[in-house]
Amino acid sequence: MALPKYEQIAQHLRGQIVRGELAPGDTVPSVPELSQTWQVAKATAERAIALLRQEGLVESRQGAGTFVRERALLARTAGERYQIAQKTGNVYTAGEHAVIVAAERVEAPEEVASALGIEPGAAVIRRQRVTLEGQLPTATSVSWFSAELADRCPRLLLRERIREGTTRYLEVQTGRRPSSGQDVWTARLATHEELQLLQLEAPEAVSETRHTVFDANGEPLAYEVGITPSGRWARVEEYAL
Predict the structure, then answer these.
(1) How far apart are CA 30 and CA 35, in angstroms?
(2) Are residues 108 and 124 in contact, defined by beta-carbon separation less than 8 angstroms?
């Protein structure tokens, strides 16, 4: 089912902000411009801008326009990171970097096995990272891959950053191009480990994103669980990669 037009417009602008195409201080297209570009009524365009204001991504100044707010800390989905990597060759935007805290071969938990279409207990590759802006941890995530990828993708088992992103790396090494992704969001209290990694104090709410990416044949290519502190926007969505 297609999203309402105002949400489509907001999602498009949100993506530009997340990917850094619209930087803090940049002017967001005006209501008349959005109305003409998207062929919608001005009220629909105004509703899209209002949604971004509610999310804290933009601010409107009377007589001047609407601008991207300074350094809004955003929850980037795995799909958005892949799009950034396609355009720039680097999975992170300026000011961001990641620290790989684990890269190992383990037995697949039931949830991971189900997502990857393998048997519980089968060997999988587990990569855990913490994303930082400067010295501030903004997210942590664990990515899971079938162990059979280890020979063709040996960097998955190294505790080193893969600057183009793991999904892009898999595509280059195996020829399996990501075709679609699914994100499922929820909110819960942070675990003890997450509190330490994100430098938070208990109790602290976090959002959890379970992301599965599929290749052109509909086969699971990777599974990731991402954690971000509270205060980020969140939604359930499926999208082309």
Answers:
(1) 8
(2) yes
